[in-house]
Structures are given as C-alpha cells and as structure tokens.
Amino acid sequence: MRSRGQHIELGDVTPHNIKQLKRLNQVVFPVSYNDKFYKDVLEVGELAKLAYYNDIVVGAVCCRVDQTEDSRRLYIMTLGCLAPYRRLRIGTVMLNHVLKICEEDGNFDNVFLHVQINNEGAIRFYQKFGFEIIETKKHYYKRIEPADAHVLQKTFGRGITIERPINNQEQQEDMS
Ligand SMILES: CC(C)(COP(=O)(O)OP(=O)(O)OC[C@H]1O[C@@H](n2cnc3c(N)ncnc32)[C@H](O)[C@@H]1OP(=O)(O)O)[C@@H](O)C(=O)NCCC(=O)NCCS
C-alpha cells in the first residue's frame, strides 16, 4: 500500500528475521512469548507476517488455526506495531491480510483474539472491522494488571467482506 510517500508492505517470517519479530513483540506486548511460540510461527506460512514501513520492520502479526470437532477458527495471537508508527494504517494492512486469508479459505467460522480490558485503542481498532466483545475472561493474564481479557470475535456468515475502517465522512454519508 502506498500513499503520501508512505510504503507499507508485508513480508515473510523466516529464520533470518525471526529475531526481529521477537524484539518487536518484546517492545509492543506486555506478555512475553516462549521459544515454542517462535518455533510454531516459522511453520504457519502466511499466518505470520512482518510489516515494513518504508523498508523498516515496524509491526508483525502471528496467527494460528484453532480447530476442534465443532469449529474451525483463526486465532490472532499477536498483532501489533511500534508506538511511533501507529495510526498510519499498518494495523489495517495486517488485519486485512488476516481477513483475506479467511475469505480465501472460506472454511473458518470466525476469527478471534484476546485483548487486555484496558486496551481501549485495540478494542476500537478491532470494532472498526466488525469484531465484537463476546466474553470477558477473569484472571486471563498471569503477570500483568489488569489481568482480565476481552475475547473479540468476528463471525463469518454469509460470505466475508474485507472492510476498511469507516471514517467520519463515510459514516455521515451512510446516514444521509
Ligand atoms: C491496535 C493496533 C495494532 C492498531 O494499529 P494501527 O496501525 O495504529 O491501526 P490503524 O492505523 O490501521 O487504525 C485503523 C483505525 O482503527 C482505529 N484505531 C486504531 N487505533 C486506535 C486508537 N488508539 N484509538 C481509537 N481508535 C483507534 C481508528 O479508527 C483507525 O483509523 P483512523 O486512524 O483513520 O482514525 C496498535 O495500536 C498496536 O499495535 N497496539 C499495541 C498492540 C496491541 O494491543 N494489539 C492488539 C492485541 S493483538
């Protein structure tokens, strides 16, 4: 995606750049992820991506498939970008990538994630894309406060639509 001289693109996670992913997640998230997390990330293909802003790694998304007898869901384990690069649509590019995978696959019931209850920015971000709080889990996190997490979920019913965040102008146009 290129606009106003800004260039955002996604790239694969490989053994050569996995340390950049680790470093980024350490800075962006209050939770630390173990070696198994990173070992698994190297196996998930398109479900893990680094985000580049003008060729610099500034964000990453890591997902996994959550399959049970009853359902097939996509779980967003981490999706984040460095604080100085927020509100530049980097999160949007990463989330649209995830939603596109769901659309192309066509067999996911929903996509979901956990978010700390005080993370209002992330909640607003996901709500823009049609995610809803379906549950709040008490004491979900072991080492951070607040320890409670919302489960945000976007359900796929009659076909998936990749949505862009609605800006105020579009909202007003919709209402007129
Ligand atoms: C949540 C996060 C990924 C959003 O990424 P981002 O690149 O800043 O998001 P975008 O620029 O694509 O935002 C798209 C829209 O989402 C909404 N949004 C994003 N951040 C928001 C915030 N802090 N407050 C309110 N709305 C927000 C806005 O509507 C925004 O559009 P606008 O900037 O035109 O108003 C980013 O804040 C982040 O990395 N947070 C820390 C990690 C995290 O908490 N991840 C979520 C759990 S996995």
UniProtKB/TrEMBL annotation:
InterPro entries: Acyl_CoA_acyltransferase (IPR016181), GNAT_dom (IPR000182), N-term/lysine_N-AcTrnsfr (IPR051556). The lineage of its organism: Eukaryota, Metazoa, Chordata, Cephalochordata, Leptocardii. It is found in: Cytoplasm. The keyword Aminoacyl-tRNA synthetase does not apply. It catalyses: N-terminal L-methionyl-L-threonyl-[protein] + acetyl-CoA = N-terminal N(alpha)-acetyl-L-methionyl-L-threonyl-[protein] + CoA + H(+); N-terminal L-methionyl-L-tyrosyl-[protein] + acetyl-CoA = N-terminal N(alpha)-acetyl-L-methionyl-L-tyrosyl-[protein] + CoA + H(+); N-terminal L-methionyl-L-phenylalanyl-[protein] + acetyl-CoA = N-terminal N(alpha)-acetyl-L-methionyl-L-phenylalanyl-[protein] + CoA + H(+); N-terminal L-methionyl-L-alanyl-[protein] + acetyl-CoA = N-terminal N(alpha)-acetyl-L-methionyl-L-alanyl-[protein] + CoA + H(+). It is an enzyme of class 2 (transferase). This is N-alpha-acetyltransferase 50. GO terms for biological process: mitotic sister chromatid cohesion. It comes from the Eukaryota. Its EC number is 2.3.1.258. It comes from Branchiostoma floridae (Florida lancelet). Coiled coil: none annotated. GO terms for cellular component: NatA complex. GO terms for molecular function: protein N-terminal-methionine acetyltransferase activity.
